[in-house]
Amino acid sequence: AMKAALVGYSSSEEEEEEGQRQGGSTQGVPPASAGRSRLPVPAGLPGDPDPEEAVSDDSSRHGGRVRGFPHERGSWATHVYLPYSVQEEFLELLELLLSHARTYVSSLAAMEEFHLSLSQCVVLRYHWIDPIVRSLKERLASFHRFFCVADQVKVYTNQNKTRTFIGLEVSAGHFQLLELVSEVDRVLEEFDLPTFYKDPSFHISLAWCIGDLSGRLEGQCLRELQDIVDGFEDSALLLRVQWEQVRCKSGNKYFSFPLR
């Protein structure tokens, strides 16, 4: 049976999942690079409230999710990703997958937006935003558009096991994604921020639920979900994605970097 991949982010009001492959010996999040302690990792999803606005920690307001990092005014949750714009057929496939997966875990909810992460979610001071955006723009300027195939159903949990995700893992295009991540990493390193995972499982998250319910979703359920994907009409075409831009969300601001 496939092991649950770990996702290195804290459960929080702004939520993001990053797949982290669980290798034979390396468990979980990579160690901090020598001499640098990593910030606790917050999380931000496109379209979620800006940390500036979301000061209250009333967990009843957001489905019982608990903020995983202390709110601090002037700190901006920041995330670099590839936006995935959905077609109607994709939503039909998602609905088939969800209605089947809910026979195993009834509390599954569809993601509201779809993307593929190129960074962890990091905390920026406000005055860092412009220089980081400038640096990203420079590094990504020469990068060409490319295709990915995201067609392998996989189950993920976040680092502290408070949430479970179903995602579509990339089976082709991994090399270009790693190249893109290395450019983003270099920008983050300039500002002494945490870089991406060393052996990432690139994926598009489809659905999530509270708690670690990976045990119910793996094995039988996962095989059946994969069969649904494989048997879906035009799935090969549908799940072959051309990435046209990189996006950075910082608090409530969005920055786009077109690929050539």
Automatic annotation (TrEMBL):
The record's InterPro entries line, in alphabetical order, gives: Cyclic_Pdiesterase, Usb1
- List the Gene Ontology MF annotations in alphabetical order: 3'-5'-RNA exonuclease activity; lyase activity
Q: Which reaction does it catalyse?
A: a 3'-end uridylyl-adenosine-RNA = a 3'-end 2',3'-cyclophospho-uridine-RNA + adenosine; a 3'-end uridylyl-uridine-RNA = a 3'-end 2',3'-cyclophospho-uridine-RNA + uridine
Give me the ranges of the annotated region Disordered: 1-67
Annotated Gene Ontology cellular components are:
nucleus
Functional note? 3'-5' RNA exonuclease that trims the 3' end of oligo(U) and oligo(A) tracts of the pre-U6 small nuclear RNA (snRNA) molecule, leading to the formation of a mature U6 snRNA 3' end-terminated with a 2',3'-cyclic phosphate. Participates in the U6 snRNA 3' end processing that prevents U6 snRNA degradation. In addition also removes uridines from the 3' end of U6atac snRNA and possibly the vault RNA VTRNA1-1.
Query: What's the name of the protein?
Result: U6 snRNA phosphodiesterase 1
